[in-house]
Write a structure and sequence with these properties.
The protein is α+β, with helices and mostly antiparallel strands and 278 residues long. It has six helices and 17 strands. Bound molecules: fe (ii) ion (FE2).
Length: 278
């Protein structure tokens, strides 16, 4: 991976940074293949979680996935009796949340020294990966991800979370590309999704300022693009009604110098994962 156009000024101004050509086509294909192989090895009858943004599976399957690689399903792929209405490969919403730690291929990709240097060049002292996920955004049923700020889910004191979102396929308006509010990271953090028990969490309002939906812009990007997202940038994605999938790999990085809040939904028994040393 070669990142040559890291522009901290633009990132601080806009709250996001688009770096095309960050990942070569062969690597995109390899990661997609690896994720699909993991899904193929799952037993569809043993899966416990449907994932829909805003209505997260508030149960052990989700709440204990911080140190696991678990399949979450699209709500649109499950019938009234809870059975899959299509093959699992076309029903999975995402795999999460420790691919960067438990899958050797994803680990090698995620901990790349260049990504650690990127996080440092965007202002982090001790960048560490705290979460990762493969997002499938399935054809026809890939669900909407409502506007949100990642710091709502992964908060440190001070707030440091950085999203690194890799397009493993072309992302278009038709297949549900990212949508952002440029410069929206300068507004307040609206919500907190915090743990309320061993297997439960809830949304708490921090600030009632609404998101400026009129300011949302789509980020259409070609395969291999890395989008860096400030932890307070409002972003989401529309449903995928097209015939094309929109596979993406996303990971979230925090600064190890900041204090991890113990009531974050995501729990880890081990420290967050550092990048490889240069
Ligand atoms: Fe996000």
């Amino acid at each position: 991976m070669l990142l040559t156009r890291v522009d901290r000024t633009a990132f601080e101004r806009d709250g996001f940074l688009v770096i095309e050509g960050a990942v070569d086509a062969a690597t995109c294909a390899r990661l997609r293949g690896r994720a699909e192989a993991r899904v193929a090895a799952e037993d569809p009858t043993s899966l416990g979680g449907i994932f829909a943004s805003g209505e997260r599976a508030n149960d052990a399957w989700f709440m204990e996935s911080g140190e696991a690689i678990r399949c979450f399903l699209e709500a649109g792929a499950v019938d009234a009796e809870g059975r899959l209405d299509r093959p699992l490969a076309r029903a999975v919403n995402k795999l999460g949340h420790a691919l960067h730690e438990l899958d050797p291929d994803f680990e090698a990709f995620s901990r790349d020294v260049h990504l650690g240097n990127l996080a440092r060049s965007l202002g982090m002292q001790d960048p560490r990966i705290v979460q990762s996920m493969m997002i499938f955004k399935q054809p026809a049923i890939g669900g909407e991800v409502r506007l949100h700020q990642d710091a709502s889910f992964l908060l440190t004191e001070p707030s440091t979370v950085l999203g690194l979102w890799f397009a493993l396929e072309d992302a278009t308006v038709e297949n549900g590309c990212l949508q952002v509010i440029p410069a929206g990271h300068r507004g307040p953090l609206r919500q907190r999704f915090a743990r309320t028990g061993a297997t439960s969490a809830d949304y708490r309002e921090l600030d009632a300022t609404p998101f400026d939906h009129a300011a949302v812009v789509p980020l259409e990007v070609p395969r291999g693009t890395l989008v860096c997202l400030h932890g307070h940038l409002p972003h989401g994605s529309a449903p995928n009604h097209s015939a094309a999938s929109r596979h993406a790999y996303a990971m979230h990085v925090i600064d190890g110098q900041a204090r991890w809040l113990e009531d974050n939904w995501l729990r880890r028994s081990r420290p967050a994962v550092p990048f490889y040393a240069s």
